[in-house]
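re: that chain from earlier
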Amino acid sequence: MNVAAAQPRILLIDSNVYFSKKLSDALKTEGFDVITSPQAAYALTMLEWNRPAAVLCATNLREMSAYEIAPILRADAKTAAIPIIAVGNGGEQALMEAFRSGCDDYVDRRRAPDDIAAHVRAFLVSRQEGFQPTQMVPSSMATLTGDLSRMDLPGVIQMLNQARQTGALNINSGDTDGVIYFDGGELSHAECGVLFGDEAVIHILKSCEGAGRGVYKFVYGTTSTQHTVLRSATDLMLDAMRELDEAAHEAESNDSGEEGSESENESASDSGPNKIELERP
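^ sequence. v structure.
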């Protein structure tokens, strides 16, 4: 068996020839065999006879982008398990849009090609069954850090869940200092002050929502011996958002009530002198 045959194959779909060449070279340096295509429709025909380890597809293609090919691959049992990594121009909602369409991961094409290639390598290695990330990921990729003002916490959690990551997500935002553990993408344990488990996750989500600042750091491979989170990440995020909505609605109702009382008081004080004047002979 030759060396090329042993290399994981990446199918790169991007109409920008210059970017495609740069990224292909970086992926090859990471040990991948790369096949490129400027059109998604043609690239899909390759999957029948040349199954890749992953598909990297641009989100700005005219005819069919990563958002369109994801549902197609997921609908076919033969291609449903192929990871799809969307390659886009960033934006606050780009990551969420990629996940909603069925993609497994998202990278910003404005990053350096070697950074993207290293990200792809770390992503694929982390999906291998029985893999311990800290044993194989380079030290430069042992942690994932970010600013919560650029990516909200639910987006980070969904990203780690979709990528089936194992590790510890440390969150610091204002007075909130917590940690959420992931095991194969599923939440396993969480701590924040005296809170733990589901309650800690909901508290962390609520306190970080709309905070406008804060940081997160995900350490690959870190595990917890405790298993205190009993519900899914989706359920906990929905509960946190529901409680925030209820609190906002209650605050709005209280404000409306106070404004109404002030208006009544003003009306009463205005009507008093008028009434006296009318009774004055």
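Residues 246 and 252 are 10 Å apart (CA to CA).
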